[in-house]
Amino acid sequence: MPGEFKIIERLRKAAGRPSGSLLLGIGDDCAAFRPAPGFETLATSDMLIEGVHFRVSQGLGAVGYKSMAANISDILACGGEPLYALAAVGLPAKGAMRTALSLYSGMRKCADKFGVKIIGGDTVRSDKLVISITAIGEAAVGKTVTRSGAKPGDYILVTGDLGNGAAALKQNKAWLPPLRPQLSSKLCGRSLVSSMIDISDGLSSELYHLCEESGTGALIYEELVPVSKAALNLAGGIRRRALSAAFLGGEDYELLFTVPAECLGTALKLGRKYSKLSVLGRMLPVRQGVKIFCSGKAKVIPRGGYDAFY
Ligand SMILES: [Mg+2]
Question: What confidence tens digit (pLDDT) does each residue in 220-275 have?
Fold first, then answer.
């Protein structure tokens, strides 16, 4: 692609010199880094396509920020510390350099905020804008948190408020997910969490993922679900309507996790220090299904539809 090398040169300059555990950064065939002794490496990747996952009108800087945040969020959801990212971008030929620089400035803003170094990537020509980021992080050996460790009786918690991502998409606005690195690191470092996932596709599907991987059911309480102000405003102040943004809308990148009963007090104390934390309900034996308590009854949460509750 014409200009590819110019783009890489600009990115390399912006990234600065390798230091610390990073041995080789942007510009060579590979990046090289040395994992810390006693740590295991975590890797994740996420692809976003124009018109499917974002619109250019949301602002390229914000799109870049969000695409980086989505990957960092996955590392946090495993209890890891995010360290590096590789960013591959497919760019329409028209205005490719400008597009690349705006996107990368958003990616860097997010990466810098969470202590992540961009250590490589690729640019190609593409009809639509395509962004694929790979994030690399690490967790102390044995401290990586999975989706599969929840037990019946564990409490289900969520950080922050839900529905911000969906509201922003609907209003064609930028949304910069807050992410919860301190809380995730404290909770997981102290082994308080039995299972965890980040909310990229809405509360319904993430709760199902935790239950399926852990082999449990769940009961959550509708009145305990923290709905964002943005979703509430968009729903004309009607909470029940706004709840669909929390259950089905994605891209909130809050953390949904479970803690054993004896760890709940400590987890809530950490929540008061680092981020809003809400208890939603408890895990149940698998035969009891995945349910929500609303209007005086426990009802099965439909996988793909929230309106079906009523
Ligand atoms: Mg995830």
Answer: 999 999 999 999 999 999 998 899 888 887 789 999 999 999 999 999 999 999 99
| pLDDT tens by residue, 34-89 | 989 999 999 999 999 998 888 888 899 999 999 999 999 999 999 999 999 999 99
pLDDT single digits (tens) 180-215: 999 999 999 999 999 999 998 889 999 999 999 999
What is the 297 CA–ligand 1 centroid distance (Å)? Answer: 30
Q: For residue 37, how far is its CA from the centre of ligand 1 (angstroms)? A: 26
- Residue pair 300/293 in contact (Cβ under 8 Å)? The answer is no
| Residue among 89, 78, 90, 70 at smallest CA distance from 39 | 78
Total-model pTM: 0.93
| 198 CA → ligand 1 middle, Å | 5
Q: Which residues pair with 122 in a beta bridge?
A: 88
Amino acid 264 reads L
Please name each of the domains of the chain with its CATH number.
Answer: 4-140 (3.30.1330.10), 155-303 (3.90.650.10)
Report the candidate in 173, 178, 184 with the shortest Cα–Cα distance to residue 161: 178
Q: Tokens standing for 268?
A: 């809530």
Taking a C-beta distance cutoff of 8 angstroms, is the pair 254, 154 a contact? no
